[in-house]
């Protein structure tokens, strides 16, 4: 079917690499090459300059790429309209979420969506904000829900909900008994941080820099669970979302350090690639997400 061949052509163009395109499309590299050769024979023109490291469009290829994107978008719209005739939402949904959202907020939304639309196949990738953004740019995800600031161009960014950030410590920490902690009391302490690229790490660094704090030492973990365990063990203090430590605060395993002035809230964002066509499953899930924040 010409639509499938055009989809292969668009994927190769956007990935600029035959092997990466083959992997994304679950095809062999010779199979991908055959699709491109068939298109070149069909149009009687060379569409791509190939090299071992890079694929670059010819002038004819550039024309076809723009039209192919339009054709694929129209084909997807037709598919959605036909699905609506049966009043069914089907297909697949690839969601990316940063750790706080993916581990503490998204599961409930997914469970409700699965009951409402049982024929939609869903997969979730949990990674930091930067990694989710890159996956969207590569068109391997349909949408992302992240906690960090997104500065990449070509992204559609929609506010999702507010998130309260708090400073936490173990119940035995010297600051745990204080009722009012000013930033100067946080000088030369040990901090437990998330990895670079994490929205939580970015928020923590902004607070530390704005308060003019020097760290005695820092430890880095690539998951919020790791940060929680380290703080609980007395390794240092940390800034995390209240969503993440809700149970531990209630049990007394961790305590909130009452910083004055209070830490600011941050935004959760729904992000999508501007050039990625949305299926009916994606559109219905977006509606579910936006309703879930109220």
Automatic annotation (TrEMBL):
Gene3D superfamilies: 3.40.190.290, Winged helix-like DNA-binding domain superfamily/Winged helix DNA-binding domain. It comes from the Bacteria. The keyword 4Fe-4S does not apply. Residues 1-58 form the HTH lysR-type domain. Keywords: DNA-binding, Transcription, Transcription regulation. Belongs to the LysR transcriptional regulatory family. This is LysR family transcriptional regulator. It comes from Paenibacillus baimaensis.
């Amino acid at each position: 079917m010409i639509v499938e061949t055009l989809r292969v052509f668009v994927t190769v163009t956007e990935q600029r690499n035959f092997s990466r395109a083959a992997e994304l499309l679950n095809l062999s590299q010779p199979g991908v090459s055959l699709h491109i050769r068939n298109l070149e024979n069909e149009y009687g023109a060379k569409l791509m300059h190939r090299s071992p490291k890079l694929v670059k469009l010819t002038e004819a290829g550039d024309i076809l790429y723009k039209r192919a994107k339009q054709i694929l978008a129209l084909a997807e719209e037709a598919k959605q309209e036909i699905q609506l005739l049966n009043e069914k939402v089907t297909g697949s949904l690839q969601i990316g979420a940063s750790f706080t959202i993916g581990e503490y907020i998204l599961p409930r939304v997914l469970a409700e969506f699965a009951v409402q639309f049982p024929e939609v196949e869903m997969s979730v990738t949990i990674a930091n904000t930067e990694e989710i953004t890159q996956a969207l740019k590569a068109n391997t995800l349909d949408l992302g829900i992240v906690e960090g600031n997104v500065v990449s161009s070509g992204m559609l960014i929609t506010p999702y909900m507010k998130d309260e950030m708090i400073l936490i410590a173990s119940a035995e920490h010297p600051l745990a008994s204080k009722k009012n902690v000013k930033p100067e009391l946080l000088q030369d302490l040990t901090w437990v941080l998330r990895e670079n690229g994490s929205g939580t790490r970015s928020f923590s660094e902004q607070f530390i820099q704005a308060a003019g704090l020097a760290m005695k030492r820092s430890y880095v973990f690539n998951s919020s669970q790791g940060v929680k365990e380290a703080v609980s063990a007395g390794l240092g203090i940390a800034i995390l979302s209240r969503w993440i430590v809700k149970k531990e605060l209630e049990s007394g395993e961790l305590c909130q350090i009452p910083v004055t002035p209070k830490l600011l809230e941050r935004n959760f964002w729904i992000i999508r690639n501007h050039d990625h066509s949305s299926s009916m499953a994606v559109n219905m899930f977006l509606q579910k997400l936006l309703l879930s924040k109220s």
